[in-house]
Amino acid sequence: MQTPLKIAVVGSGLVGSLLAIYLKKEGHEVHVYDRSPDIRKINFSGRSINLAMSNRGWKALDGVGVGDAVREIAIPMDKRAIHLVDKLNFQDYGQEGESIYSISRGTLNRKMIDLAENAGAEFFFEQKIWDVTLNEATLHIGETERGEWEEKKYDMVFGADGAFSRIRHRMQRQSMFNYSQEFLNMGYKELNIPANPDATHKLDKNSFHIWPRGEYMLIALPNLDGSFTCTLFMPFEGENSFDSLTDRKQVEAFFEKNFPDSIEVIPKLAEDFFNNPTSTLVTMKCFPWTYSDKIALIGDACHAIVPFYGQGMNAGFEDITVLYEMIQKYGNDWKTVFSEYEISRKPNADAIAELSYRNFMEMSTKTADEKFLLQKKIEKAFSDKHPDKWIPLYSRVTFSDRPYTEALAIGDFQNTIMEEVLRMKNIETIWDSPVVENKILELLQKA
Amino acid sequence: MQTPLKIAVVGSGLVGSLLAIYLKKEGHEVHVYDRSPDIRKINFSGRSINLAMSNRGWKALDGVGVGDAVREIAIPMDKRAIHLVDKLNFQDYGQEGESIYSISRGTLNRKMIDLAENAGAEFFFEQKIWDVTLNEATLHIGETERGEWEEKKYDMVFGADGAFSRIRHRMQRQSMFNYSQEFLNMGYKELNIPANPDATHKLDKNSFHIWPRGEYMLIALPNLDGSFTCTLFMPFEGENSFDSLTDRKQVEAFFEKNFPDSIEVIPKLAEDFFNNPTSTLVTMKCFPWTYSDKIALIGDACHAIVPFYGQGMNAGFEDITVLYEMIQKYGNDWKTVFSEYEISRKPNADAIAELSYRNFMEMSTKTADEKFLLQKKIEKAFSDKHPDKWIPLYSRVTFSDRPYTEALAIGDFQNTIMEEVLRMKNIETIWDSPVVENKILELLQKA
User: FAD-binding domain spans which residues (chains A, B) (predicted)?
Assistant: First the structure.
């Protein structure tokens, strides 16, 4: 246990709530602030992508004993269901028994706040933080940016306030603060596949459904109530774009042509399409993440990534795991805790940002490509035979807690090997032969 | 002439003042705001790098008839004087008659404000702009960020307020605004070489002086009064760093060892070193640069670069040249003027950012490298013989007004050729022979 401090966590999202539980466990007084109303008291829908909890997320939850409470609201998905225009393919995510878990963001957030309150954290909703005095850990709170502000002094402030963090905003105005935000020319929109009348799922419940179409794609993840939360990713402008679909007729014709098997399961397609907002996708990087022993950023506030690897929440939760490791190691020396935390996490945050950016291409284009599916088969066959020699990239990211930097580097190396293997003569017929196996073994030796 | 508008220019620096002259010429009412006092009334020194005006800068000045007034305060530099620890080399910048021009920033800024006032622009100093309403071109002005603000409505606002622009700051808070700021782990400090008692220069007046030492370097540019403004570029931390030089003795020992021939010409070395601030170096990129027909960023406010190519001011002035071209083309259609301006300039701003970043290595390391000097000699010999086939990168950037993007791309191609040429057997002895000439001709054909 550490010397008890008075700590503010700004942001009551997933990372803020879980961090509050960890800090309570260490004996601190914890106040969590959020500019929005209590998510448990409002209708939260229409603008989110379902979460895919994987190894790193579970590790952080289990580390403070709340994993099982979350497992109750999670649905395992052990494979991709790839909806081509004329057929349906399946592709396992990992080995037998390995799954990622679909969870609705709203449901999980409500649960996490309950758990944090039970642990003793105090929540203050509809409290707008406009500024922070970095060297004093003082929050400036008020109704409007230009109106009266109240000051609240803490021993330490965590900024868990997401990609558009106000806490980071203040840090950004210091000299030597590196920062970037880059938006994709693509947005996303939530659509809904309702449950059957008997509350069963209209599509395979234990699959991550993808309709890969190159420049755009549709995905669907299951919910507990039998529904699926769908997300359409598409460019803002151009031939197949949000801008090009301006009325009911166009939307329906677009889906009939490009996602024919989705039509019967999305009954309120046009309503969803025009009622739900089109959201943006941003990659945000910055450094440093901390200020002395007073301020630390965590989660999306210091590394917002695009959602194509399903690792945003997992990476944010892993920040907490690493922070907690540093607390175990350095105790009350918060300056060292913070500096070791940011030094450890920054390269990994950059690596998962890169992997996530690249993965749009894999999801939207490669999953529809025969050559890519062949590559995955070869990798799987080899990995089954030599599990010590080949862990596929997806598994390194999703089913392990080894650093993201390692996954990125080894993944790139494996890719150079697979490119050479795919150039082998008649690879389509010999892919499962000892010739290919030996070729891979030989190429691995060159590392 | 356009329909007269009421236009605010935020920032009375070099770009803001020159832009004001252009806008007055078009018949607009022009108000220039600056948060600082009038530079003509204060002592401005100790924290700047002398400017190197080159082709793009002169073109913008001559375009509005003020080039000759500026030539009066400029000193031509036709070569690099490269101070190695034990000898002095010279290297011409271009062809006979081609020079870059040393100008003190303070002197030029004062002159530009005089010229803009003469053209009819009105200046408002010590006026702090805290915010701008983008869709109404309204400035919010006040003593402090949290105090009372006054509103000033314009037809159009230009943000010429530098790398830490408040106008951009507001644009940054919009969705889909891409932004990055990256600081080098290196800073700079101004030092001074005073004039001789008879007001002559202590070093060759028409040279850009460099002391290249790898990780750090010293430069010196001439002033009209016989002095030189020196700039020391060095890492903040590490073995040879600002942090490592903490007292008078250390500074003097460092200079004696590493810049021996500078000792006798910098009499107040330690005073300058400890009195002058250590400044940071940032690369800032963003997009978009404009908002509808109301707001446009220009100069460092939308593309701050590191100073190693001497192109910061030149690129900012070229923004004005391009903006003016668009005005000639599209008249009162400011929406199109702005959008064509940003589309034309953005890739070029990115290209000069990249070239400037790379050029630290050229200045600090390569100028001390025999192989690099040989490469320059080969390029020069070939270029003299085939001026239509080979314009060196430095000349493309400095002595032409062709796009920076083109300079970057062709420069990279030329580099691949020179790498191959430098690998030729006995290149040190045959560099001026027809064998080498033919090799280059042959490699150029492969383009």
Answer: 6-353
Identity of the residue in A176, A179, A280 whose CB atom sits nearest the CB atom of B280: A176
Contact A203, A340 (CB under 8 A): no
Contacts of B170 in chain A (CB under 8 A): none
DSSP state at residue B135:
G
The full DSSP string for B181-212 is EEEEEEEEEEEEEPPPTTS--SS-TTEEEEEE
User: What one-letter code names the amino acid at A107?
Assistant: T
Question: E strands, A119-253, where?
Answer: 122-124, 129-133, 138-142, 149-153, 156-159, 178-193, 207-212, 217-222, 228-235
How many Cβ atoms are within 10 Å of A37's Cβ, its own excluded?
Answer: 11
Contacts across the A-B interface (CB distance below 8 Å): 29
A180 interaction partners in chain B (CB closer than 8 Å): 179-182
Strand partners, A283: A182
The CATH number for A305's domain is 3.50.50.60
The residue among B280, B306, B329 that closes a domain is: B280
- Parallel, antiparallel, or unpaired for β B51-53 and B100-103? antiparallel
Q: Is residue A341's pLDDT more than 70?
A: yes
Residue A257 lies inside a defined structural domain of this protein: yes
Measured between CA atoms, the residue of chain A closest to residue B131 is A146
CA dist., res. B402 & res. B427, Å (int): 32
Residues A117 and A349: their CA atoms lie apart, in Å, by: 29
Last residue of a domain, one of A239, A255, A280: A280
- Chain A positions touching chain B (beta carbons under 8 Å): 146, 175-183, 280
B176/A182 touch (CB, cutoff 8 Å), yes or no: no
Give the domain range for residue A415. 369-445
Quote the DSSP letter at residue B173.
Answer: T
Least confident among A275-289, B37-51, B163-177, B306-320: B37-51
Residue pair B345/B56 in contact (Cβ under 8 Å)? The answer is no
Cβ atoms of A337 and A327 closer than 8 Å: yes
pLDDT of B245 above 80:
yes
Query: Residue B103: is it exposed, middle or buried by C-beta count within 10 angstroms (0-12/13-18/19+)?
Result: buried
**B65 plus B144 within the same structural domain:** yes
List pLDDT tens digits, range A83-104: 999 999 999 999 889 999 999 9
Please report the beta strands in A6-160, taking only residues with DSSP state E, as ranges in sequence order. 6-10, 29-33, 51-53, 75-77, 79-83, 88-92, 100-103, 122-124, 129-133, 138-142, 149-153, 156-159
Average the pLDDT over B184-206 and give the result.
97
pLDDT digits over B319-346, tens only? 999 999 999 999 999 999 999 999 999 9
Q: What is the pLDDT of residue B173?
A: 87
pLDDT of B35 reads 96
The edge-to-edge listing of strands for the beta sheet with B51-53 is B51-53, B100-103, B75-77
The SS3 of residue B226 is coil
So what's the pLDDT on residue A46?
Answer: 66
Copy the structure tokens of residue B174.
């919009």
- How far is the alpha carbon of B302 from chain A, nearest alpha carbon, in Å? 14
Are residue B238 and residue B323 in the same domain, yes or no? no
Name the burial class of residue A190, with classes exposed (0-12), middle (13-18) and buried (19+) by CB atoms within 10 angstroms of its CB: buried
Whether residues B60 and B190 fall in one domain:
no
Query: Is B178 in contact with A178 (Cβ distance < 8 A)?
Result: no
**CB under 8 Å to A325, separation ≥6 — which residues?**
none
pLDDT at B46 over 80: no
The answer to whether the CB of B82 falls within 8 A of the CB of B88 is yes
Spatial distance between the Cα atoms of B283 and B139, rounded to a whole number of angstroms: 27
Q: Phi-psi region for residue B338, left (φ > 0), alpha (ψ -120 to 50) or beta?
A: alpha
Q: Does residue B155 surpass a pLDDT of 80? A: yes
Tally of domains in chain A: 3
Same domain, A56 and A109: yes
- What per-residue string of b and e applies to A46-78 under the rule 16 or more CB within 10 Å gives b? eebbbbbbbbbbbbbbebbebbeebeebbbbbb
